[in-house]
Amino acid sequence: MNKNILYAVLCAFCLPLAGCGGMKVLKVNDFTEQRVTDLSLTKKVTGKRDYIFFSTTKMGVFLDGSIQGIITDYQGNPIEGVTVKVTAESGKAKSGEEADVFAMATSENASAVMNLSFAPGISDSMGLYKIHFSLPVTDEEVELKGKLVYNPGWDQQKINLGKAYEPQQKETPFRLYYNMDTGFLAFAEGVRKVIVEAVGEGKGRMSGLPGAKAPAAMPSSVQPATPAGETPGAAGKAEEDLFKGFDFGQ
Length: 250
Fold this sequence. Notes:
Blueprint (H helix, E strand, L loop, with lengths): L2 H16 L10 E2 L5 E15 L4 E16 L1 E2 L9 E10 L5 E2 L11 H4 L6 E2 L5 E9 L4 E10 L3 H8 L9 E9 L4 E6 L35 E2 L24
Parallel strand pairs: 1-11
Antiparallel strand pairs: 2-3, 3-8, 4-12, 5-6, 5-7, 5-9, 9-10, 10-11
């Protein structure tokens, strides 16, 4: 066989295996109101292909970024040291069906599973937390359903230290979606509860509206905290707050 023909055939066969195609430029139309930040595209090894005489590595495109929020008390003061974690429930598989996001990585390379994990966020002195993620891009899209879990170890911390931030709302569901072609980025959270309080004496049938009264106001030094995106205010007013009252003096 002519050497030039053989060389051309080998190049046509080997170039796709080497994964030499260029990666798309990251385009973002952010509809998350800065809830998702620090976005970038990376290529990572996801496994290998075995052939008769040789093997090649599988490369996958991943969307890296952070989910961020702010933890404060009732009066808007930042709370430091509160842990927020993500529990992934499902992601987009190549068939379009939902699959366990941790099973999406090939079993040929166990280290690929680590790319799908989430680094927990811990609020800093400004109350800001960031949860880093790395998610595979499948069919030009990233789609993930999961839960944000607030300070999951508070009960054990209370046992060990005698004090902790107890979350009133233990977790909230969310959905993260990104489309590489349009750059559309969305982060949707589940239904949020709103607390109301009956006020006024009322007359006749309007007297005695049902509903619990707001708790007594506490000193600012022991005020509970509220999750990101909620408006801080007086204790027990308006929207639901993340942390219940606690007493550091006991």
